[in-house]
Amino acid sequence: MSFKSVKIGKHTIEVPIIQGGMGVGISWDRLAGHVSLEGGLGIISAVGTGYYEQKSHVKKLVADRPLDTANFYSKEALFAIFENARKICGDRPLGCNVLYAINDYGRVVHDACEAGADIIITGAGLPTNMPEFTADFPDVALVPIVSSAKALKIICKRWQMRYNRLPDAVVLEGPKSGGHQGFTYEQCALEENQLEHLVRPVVEEAAQWGDIPVFAAGGIWDKNDIDAMMALGAAGVQMGTRFIGTFECDAHENLKQVLINAKAEDIQLMKSPVGYPARGVISPLTRLIETRTGPDIKCISNCVAPCNRGVEAKEVGFCIADRLSDAYLGNMELGLFFSGTNGYRITELISVKELMRRLTQGE
Question: For FRET with 122, which of 24, 108, 255, 275 sits at 20 to 30 Å CA-CA?
Fold first, then answer.
């Protein structure tokens, strides 16, 4: 099956592959810039921008970590990331992933639009008020992430009623993705919740609202997977984990090595302070969490609303902001390494250009 370009709002994506937004620091300027350069849609993660360029954009640090929400989601750093990504991809479409569960969600969405994002993607909750924060930027396309046709219907109804607009595209994420899931532990294992069973109902729901393009995500690995999703009606796919296995990925080399060394059974669901189960690689940190001997939880960065200023972090045994940033800094002992179910299939690093070639031509 040959791939057709897809319009997302006013923006045309030549190759219908969205690179998933991965924070902290896995998809920033280099990865997103190169994916967009190769015709896909590169996505900059807004999570943990305070760590960008050795935290040089942060006004206040405590224990060498960005203090509070304003510094963890640094506007100055987000601007710098977009500026540097633009040096790579020029005026090709470039997006930003902003999690709905974060503190300062509206401010960060507005910052991303100001920084030059063409497309905003939001998951980790139902972003029923997303258009509120982009009213000053009518050309910015809005793409919610959903896990069911029902969720898409709720979003479309609310957006149409309140803002007289609809999503420009939608990402449907199944339970094999890396990071946070839109399902409970039990729901992740159910056959009816597997991506291949979700695509048709979501495509049908999207059609009710005017043929909103659907991008399937979670466990997509190669051209065969992409073809299978398109055969079910998807306009394209979103892929995160596979892009970690590229030279241009912004992640630390140690993080890439964790995936290269991982076996299938090492990638499991775990609890998270965000309130959703998350998928990642079993590591020294996960063993510390099990025995409740992990690092102290101090909530320096105040990253996500559901954590309730560290209450949930203490409940599950780790601070997600500190541990994801440790992974970005290459700390093998204390880092939290998110991965989709196929992360163990990364055996070597290749260029984004070569990966896009394999995904479009098959191999």
Answer: 255
Q: What are phi and psi of 150, to 5 degrees?
A: -60, -45
pTM of the model: 0.96
Domain-embedded: residue 301: yes
- Residue 220, domain member (yes or no): yes
Domain that holds residue 317: 255-328
Q: Are residues 220 and 278 in the same domain?
A: no
At 224, is the secondary structure helix, strand, or coil?
helix
Number of domains in the chain: 2
Residues 127-160 have pLDDT tens digits of 999 999 999 999 999 999 999 999 999 999 999 9
pLDDT tens-digit profile of 273-331? 887 889 999 999 988 888 888 888 888 888 888 878 888 888 888 889 999 999 999 99
Q: Which two tokens stand for residue 188?
A: 């992740």
Extract the tokens encoding 137.
């930027």
Cβ count near 209 (within 10 Å): 17
Residue 57 has pLDDT above 80, yes or no: yes
d(CA 49, CA 96): 12
For the chain, percent helix, then strand, then coil, each to nearest 5?
Answer: 40, 15, 45
Q: How far is CA 267 from CA 93, 278, 336, 358, in A?
A: 32, 10, 12, 24
